[in-house]
Amino acid sequence: MLCDEDFDIYAINNYQNPNCVSVLEFLDDLNRIKYVKRLINKYVDKGELRERLILNHIIFLANVFGPEATVAMLRYKVESESHPVLNSFLKFLKYSDSNDTGPLDDQLLETLKKTV
Predict the structure, then answer these.
(1) Is 40 in contact with 78 (CB distance < 8 Å)?
(2) Cβ–Cβ contacts within 10 Å for residue 7, how many?
């Protein structure tokens, strides 16, 4: 289980970008978690869905941190009331299996299946 004290160490230990040349680049990559969180909050609060952008950010994170670490970090940073939305994206991408997915936004999952 992640906590504030362990989060940065966990992210550093799981960072797999051989092209990274600076701490600034690492921090830019890590900031994508904030972008995903912001986009999910926009969807939850205003109904504004930018599914392709969210998917692109999550896929990028999985490419540089690995899928398992990406799932753990996103679930830690995204508020629990938004987890059904996050879980729908993770299930769509097959980054989490049906045993550990948690609650889903079924309408969002159907939208993802139809449009992406």
Answers:
(1) yes
(2) 16
Please identify which residue in the block is written with the tokens 């921090």.
Answer: 27
pTM of the model: 0.93
On the CB side of 91, CA atoms within 13 Å amount to 21
Rg (the chain; Cα; Å): 14
Q: Which amino acid is at 78?
A: V
Long-range pairs of 78-81 with CB within 8 A, sequence gap ≥ 24: 78/36, 78/37, 78/40, 79/37, 79/41, 81/44
Cβ–Cβ < 8 Å for 54, 35: no
pLDDT in tens, 4-23: 999 999 999 999 998 888 99
How do residues 38-69 score in pLDDT, each as one tens digit?
Answer: 999 999 999 999 999 999 999 999 999 999 99
Cβ density class 12-30: b for 16+ within 10 Å, e for less = eeebeeeeeeeeeebeebb
Encoded tokens for 24: 């600034």
DSSP label of 18: T
